[in-house]
Amino acid sequence: MKIMQIGILLFLSPLWPLGENPTYYAPFVIVNKETLQLAFFDEGELQATYAVATGLTEDRTPEGMFTIVVKANQPYYRKSNIPGGDPNNPLGARWIGFDARDTDGRTYGVHGTNQPETIGYRVSGGCIRMKNEDVVELFDQIPIGTKIWVVDTDRNFIELAKSKGVIN
């Protein structure tokens, strides 16, 4: 009986994080297509910035506020049937998928790469590429439900985070 009660409780519990996100102190990610950088905020502070690669053309990497809905360790690349962990896998070590353009988190994402020399350029099909060591570092800090805001602007990350109430 107790196991059934715990199961019901877990089923009815909301996904983390509770409440609206972004909120002050909640994890939050900003990707700036102009500077080709990703910023990670948590606990009301900028925790880290990373160099990224984005879409080959401006329209390929969607802009807007999205939600992280899928995470995968050593993701399988289904387009070319390449297993996770294979050195030929273009998704690298981690996949952090978000719901851009009404997708399910398996189309657009932040992921590692087997081509680290492409970081800092506009070369992808629409995803946001990171060096494998960077995406591994970020992966464990971003829970499902985290907001990711993709922009193309000359404003800095602090100004952007303040505009969303993520930091004071």
Automatic annotation (TrEMBL):
The keyword Membrane does not apply. The active site is at H111, C127. Pathway: Cell wall biogenesis; peptidoglycan biosynthesis; Glycan biosynthesis. The keyword Transcription regulation does not apply. One of its GO terms (molecular function) is peptidoglycan L,D-transpeptidase activity. GO terms for cellular component: extracellular region. GO terms for biological process: cell wall organization; peptidoglycan-protein cross-linking; regulation of cell shape. Residues 27-151 form the L,D-TPase catalytic domain. InterPro entries: LD-transpeptidase, LD_TPept_cat_dom, Transpep_catalytic_dom. It comes from the Bacteria. Gene3D superfamilies: L,D-transpeptidase catalytic domain-like. Belongs to the YkuD family. This is L,D-transpeptidase-like protein. It comes from Paraliobacillus ryukyuensis. The lineage of its organism: Bacteria, Bacillati, Bacillota, Bacilli, Bacillales.
